[in-house]
Amino acid sequence: MKTLESLGDLRSTRVLVRSDFNVPLDGTTITDDGRIKAALPTITRLTEAGAKVIIMAHLGRPKGEVKPEYSLAPVAERLEELAGVRVTLAPDVVGPGAQSAVADLKDGQIVLLENIRFDPRETSKDDAERAELANELASLADVFVSDGFGVVHRKQASVYDIAKVLPSAAGLLVVKEIESLRRATHDPERPYAVVLGGSKVSDKLGVIANLLEKADRLLIGGGMAFTFLKAQGHEVGSSLLEEDQVEAVKGYLQTAAERGVDLLLPVDVVVAPEFAKDAPATVVDADAIPADQMGLDIGPRTQERYAEAIASAKTVAWNGPMGVFEFDAFAGGTRAVARALSEGDAFSVVGGGDSAAAVRQLGFDESTFSHISTGGGASLELLEGKTLPGIDVLED
Ligand code: ADP
Ligand code: MG
After folding, report:
1. Which residues are bridge partners to 269 per DSSP?
2. Angle of helix 332-343 relative to helix 300-311, nearest 10 degrees?
3. 200 is catalytic
4. Which of 35, 163, 188, 352 can bridge 319 by disulfide, Cβ–Cβ 3.0-4.6 Å?
5. Which residue has its alpha carbon closest to ligand 1 atom 9?
6. Residue 117 annotated among the catalytic residues of the structure
7. Mutate to test the pocket of ligand 1, among 229, 324, 380 (most ligand atoms within 8 A of CB)
8. pLDDT at res. 353
9. Does the beta carbon of 199 lie inside 6 Å of ligand 1?
């Protein structure tokens, strides 16, 4: 993968950067600026090198139409504060407004193009339409830097097609993400533990299949655990269950046994009569879930076992919360796993949007993890062992 160094001296060079600024908004207030902060190392590197920086980003799903509520204006303001250099928001994507903003751009300053998804060609399935937008974007700049890790699994004009027209390189965030996720999936230091949770097995089938080939230990929690328990012949009450995946899961249990993978399932479960914040929680054995109760977290004995399996590993990849961490009474399992990763010495990677959110919400110091991915879908696809179009196109 080509890196920033390959682009040479960038003074007075117009550098088009794809960043991921898809931040959560409450009206026009940014409620979590984590993605802007994650994009700063590359942006600062470029402004300090005296480049003219032109950033492309999307916000929400305007579906190819100009919708003022999806304007990047709040992002431009926050970026200016964080980067400490002038940021001009272009009033359009590649129109006259963008062209004149770029023409006026001084070395070391930034133009943020308006929401790239205001242009329907960005996400078009038609190669020619995307190529046309990519060409118009390319006319604004000399080189392209791909740094929006959250979108590198998308074959979109500002991610993929643009790299075919301009000299291109990966930004610092993309390099860090790829290196960390590769280290946690390709030839990991052993013992290698994979912790999987989240709501549905069906979302994670590809990840399970790929990592079963590689992991020494697979720890299962979250909603998906109940389809595993069912596959083992246990009743799961009103817990989240994907009947249509039971056969697939039986196959995984068999593969794990054949390969000698230590597949850990919950031995106890925190249950409640309903999915609610203040539902009365009790702990039951995993093979004795009452018919009228649903499992919303892994129980304390399971937490302890999982923490041990993590503490003695050298590499840990974690995707998916262990329970409904959004409700305090069911956050214990996710907290226990996060704590074990945070306190352990293993190389630890957290992938998945909700898992990363859980780490923050539960108050862990992010720097105690080796890597917390900024891209939910992209990190999931890397854990599945897929090649991502936006990365593939940067290979030399
Ligand atoms: P990620 O975004 O990290 O990949 P997912 O999107 O797969 O994770 O799943 C996250 C969601 O799974 C959370 O909102 C959490 O509340 C839910 N969840 C976890 N355990 C359970 C459970 N036992 N029952 C229902 N939902 C669960
Ligand atoms: Mg999610």
Report:
1. 284, 298
2. 20
3. yes
4. 352
5. 198
6. no
7. 324
8. 87
9. yes
